[in-house]
Structure formats: C-alpha cells, structure tokens
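Minutes, project check-in
Item: structure for the 302-residue chain
Input as provided by the requester:
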Amino acid sequence: MSARRFAAAATVALAVLTACSSGSQSGGTASSNAPSSSAAGDQTAATGGVPTPDHVLVVIFENEDAKNIVGSPDAPYLTSLAQAGATFTDAHGVAHPSQPNYLALFSGSTQGVKDDACPLTFSGPNLAAQLQAAGKTFVGYSEDLPSAGYTGCDAGDYARRHNPWVDFPDLPASVNQPYSALPADYSSLPTVSFVVPNVCNDMHDCGVATGDRWARDNLAEYVTWAQQHNSLLVVTFDEDNGSSANHIATVLVGPMVNAGASDQRIDHYSLLRTLEDMYGLPPLGHAADAQPVGGIWLNSQG
C-alpha cells in the first residue's frame, strides 16, 4: 500500500475508534452521536429530508451473506467501515443470480431478467439518464473494462453482467469507463459514480479477504476525502450466496451519516430511491414503492 493510502487508512481507523462509542440505530432511528467533521453541518436538504451530497460513490461487491462480511475476521476493513458509518442489518438483494440485482439498482426494475445472459439491451429510464436530464452527471467505472464504451460480454476478469449501464444503448459511451479512469482528484468525480471491481476483487471468484484488501487499498483515500467534502460512500452487494433471504451487507459512510446499526429493511430499490431523492429525481419503477434510507442522517429529518 502506498504511503498516501496508508495514511488514509490510519485516519479511517481513528474514526472507527470514535464511532465505536456511538449508539445503535433501531427501527431506522439514529442515535445522537455526531462525527466531528466540519462538513457535517454543510448539508442541504433534498426530498424527504435526505441530504444532497456533492458526490456519491457506490461500490458493489458480490455473492456474500452479510454475516460473512461485517464482523468477519476476513473483512477487517469493511468491518471498520461498518463501524465508522451506518450499517443496515436488514438489507437484501432482490433476486438471484447477479444480473437482475444490478439492473434493479440502476433502473428500478429487473427488466424481466432471471439469469446472467449476455448481451442484453433495454430502452427506457435509468438513473444515469435521470441525472443527466437534471444537469447532474453519472459514470460507471468497471475494473478491467478494456476501454471506454466497451460493449463485449467478457474480457479477462471483467463481466458485462455486472455493468448495467452498458445495457442501455441510448446512454452515451462516456458513462461506461474503466476503473483506471476514476479521477485521482475526487472533486472531479461525477455526481454519482458506480464502481464495480473485477470478478476476483468483488469476491465472486475469489475470497472475502481478497475483496476486503481491494476495498482497503481503493476506498480509504476517498473515505477520508469525503469526510471534508460533503460526499458519501455506499458499499453494498448484489446478492448473498444464494439463500432465499438474500441477506447482504450494506454500509453508508460520510459526514452526513450518523454511525451505528439500523434495522430498517432496505433493498436495491431503497438505495435507488435514496439516490433519486438526494437529487430531486422522480423514483423509477419499483423505487416508487420503496422508502428511502432514513434515520441515519445528521441535520435532517430523514
């Protein structure tokens, strides 16, 4: 790990020690403990009391039950994020296998998909198109994507089935970027970014420890930066390892988040609704029937 990333990780660890003293959030109700970041008071309210972050980075891992992540000895970094932010103890995927979950999070619908077939194409509304129409920006960053705008099904450890924005050809090719294109200057990030590690680093083909190391090495700097720049990290999973409960880990970390555990039942439609409410966008598909994430926001009624 670089010296810069080591320093960032140490800052996150310090935040974790502070967060450990905060109360839990039961029934979607936040405790009164607040992080010390000066950015916490800079939020502007959006629809339904959710904040309006300057940037949101959504990172999607694969195929693990929540119990294999939060508190697992194989996932010390992701556990530290869960302790430093809001962790949802009743979070769920909406389907099996992987592909319909990504579509649900991006478009408010599984689009009738019940497998990982490729290629698929769809027309109609989606989060990227909504943001662009509202004067905001979206980019999806996929690790090992061979080139910007690539539409092939597989390339090395890249898998299109984990990349829903490429399935909507009305979107410009510029929203479909390799992870290597993620700006080093986080202030240049789009309004909303989705990040999809490759099929080893997302835990699909490799173990939890591999994904946790990737998270530590790639997210710690952003977490530190976000605390001072009104920005949010969302870490979630597409699905669990095949159970009917489809219980997944989901964690939100940022200066607008009150650290602790929430028992609000959420799924991919809830997360999509939350992102849409943050920027005043109408909810798409099943997101209209979902409640946004609540009870965790500082300086709001959400």
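Outcome recorded: The helical segments are 3-19, 76-84, 98-107, 127-133, 208-227, 268-278.
No further action items on this chain.
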